[in-house]
Every structure is written in structure tokens, then in C-alpha cells.
Design a protein that fits this description.
- Helices cover about 35% and strands about 35% of the residues.
- The protein has four helices and nine strands; from the N terminus they run αααββββββββαβ.
- The strands form four sheets. The protein has a three-stranded mixed beta sheet, with helices on one face. Strands 2-7 form a two-stranded antiparallel ribbon.
- The radius of gyration is 32 Å and the shape is flat.
Length: about 180
């Protein structure tokens, strides 16, 4: 007797049918229970996306830079000021309609093209809002660092290199000076 014949015999038996029915009922119960479980929060929705304001971005950047620079040998206590070229920019999902009207008369052809773009709105806890596709971080205009070791050329260079690397800006945009 091969395996398929054995399975067929088990399924046809009274005990086999009971096992199949029990497994089916268990599956249905598990599916029903899964709908009662809380949903996982792995995917952010439009309502849960946390965005920073430009002021919050500046404050956080200044604090983090100050912590890093204070750790540089010889820099000492420091204060940092960051200025921005532009604020945070949002790119919204949109739907675009292209209209084309083509008319032909006996001796001339007339064509009119146009397009219409609408931002896609979603319902959130704060009402209807545009669906954000991308958040573009602000561009840093300049950074001023005032620290105790700002008059030392080595310290000045290390602080400038640190700020350049952290913010991906050029040395022209960084000013390091000694505190009073």
C-alpha cells in the first residue's frame, strides 16, 4: 500500500474525518481571533508620522553639535548657532489629469492641451491632510561655534571638520571663535 492509498484510507475512516473537521474548526477560530488582536504599528500611517518644525530642527541640531564639540580635546564649553537656507519641505502625493482636445476642420487643425494636478488627501486625527511622500530636510546656511579653545588653530580645525562632516557643508559655512 503506497502513501496516497494510506492517506485515502485515513481520510475515509471515522477518526480521520474527525481530525480534519477539528483542524478546520481550529483554523476558523484562529482567523476569528486574529481580527481581535491589536494591529502592529510597523507601518506608519499619515496620522502617526511625526514631523519636525524648522525651529525644532535647529534646536536639536545645535544641541547635538554642542555635545559633540564639547567632547573634542581642547574645545571646552561651547555654544552653537545654526542658520538655515530654507525650512523643511514636504512633497505631497498628487494625481494628474491630462486633457487633450483635438479638432480638425476641412482646412485647419486645432489642438488644445492642458493638465490638472490635485493633491491626494487622507483622513487623519487632525482632519483631512495631504499625503506626504517625502520630507526634505532644511539646507544649513551656516554654523557659528563659540568655544573656549576657539583661538587654538588645531582645535579650530577639528571643530570645523566635525561640523562639516556632521552637516555635509563646506568650511566656508562654519565659523569657530574663542568664547569670552
Amino acid at each position: 500500500m503506497n502513501i496516497s492509498e494510506q492517506l485515502s484510507a485515513i481520510i475515509k475512516s471515522d477518526r480521520g474525518r474527525k481530525i480534519i473537521i477539528a483542524a478546520g474548526i481550529t483554523g476558523i477560530i484562529l482567523i476569528a481571533l486574529s481580527s481581535l488582536l491589536p494591529k502592529s504599528k510597523s507601518q506608519p500611517t499619515a496620522a502617526t508620522v511625526q514631523t519636525l518644525t524648522a525651529e525644532e530642527f535647529i534646536t536639536q541640531t545645535e544641541q547635538r553639535l554642542c555635545e559633540i564639540i564639547s567632547g573634542i580635546d581642547g574645545a571646552g564649553i561651547c555654544r552653537v548657532m545654526v542658520t538655515l537656507e530654507n525650512g523643511i519641505e514636504y512633497v505631497y502625493a498628487s494625481q494628474q489629469k491630462i486633457n487633450s482636445d483635438h479638432q480638425q476642420e476641412s482646412d485647419r487643425v486645432s489642438q488644445r492641451d492642458g493638465s490638472e494636478s490635485n493633491v491626494i488627501l487622507v483622513d487623519t486625527a487632525n482632519g483631512r491632510q495631504g499625503l506626504i511622500v517625502t520630507e526634505l530636510q532644511p539646507t544649513v546656511r551656516g554654523v557659528v561655534v563659540v568655544c573656549e579653545g576657539g583661538d587654538n588653530a588645531d582645535v579650530k580645525q577639528r571643530v570645523t571638520d566635525t561640523v562639516k562632516t556632521a552637516l555635509n557643508i563646506t568650511a566656508r559655512r562654519v565659523c569657530v571663535t574663542k568664547s569670552a
